[in-house]
Amino acid sequence: MGKVVMYSSVSVDGFIADENDQPGPLFDWLTTGDVPLDDSGFVKVSQVSYDYTRPYWDQIGVTVAGRHVFDMTDGWDGKPPAGIDHVVVVTHRPQPDGWDPEAPFHFVDGIEAAMVKAQDLAGDRIVEVAAGDVGGQMLAAGLVDEVRMDVVPVVLGSGKRYFGSVDAQHLLDDPDIIQGNRVVHLRYQVRR
């Protein structure tokens, strides 16, 4: 079974989007370098960020996200982002009308069912959990092994919190810290 990693870019005050679900400058670090991170030609980062991010991306087998993110991205047009094989969508609603049943998206009710499905699909690869409400619920349920944050030098002031509505203490080990261009990459192991 692969590792479960909660991940997102985040402001220094802990937000993954503003109150209007807009990321603002949180993804600017993905376009301020000169090393292509993917085949799009649009995503270019510093060499340090590439050396940190690309190996991680290559290990991801499944991403778990909430229905809100799925709806906001229009389901990534049926193609999982960043070359990921499958997306598990946590939702209480069925897949959208007219959704291609061959698209590698799986709609499940609840975080436990999502994790079972994701781990089955990922095998020994990483299960990435999007930060926010779903990620916070999975952390609170003890389903997350590692927390990764790409901390961007901006204060949003309010918005969507990285850990969602988590209201209990969770201890993390000391971070691994990588300084990129306009970003600090942090990686914490979750204490058990």
Automatic annotation (TrEMBL):
Residues covered by the Bacterial bifunctional deaminase-reductase C-terminal domain: 111-170
Name of a matching Pfam family: RibD_C
UniProt-listed GO biological process terms: riboflavin biosynthetic process
Gene Ontology molecular function: any one: 5-amino-6-(5-phosphoribosylamino)uracil reductase activity
InterPro entries, per database record: DHFR-like_dom_sf (IPR024072), RibDG_C (IPR002734)
Name assigned to this protein: Dihydrofolate reductase
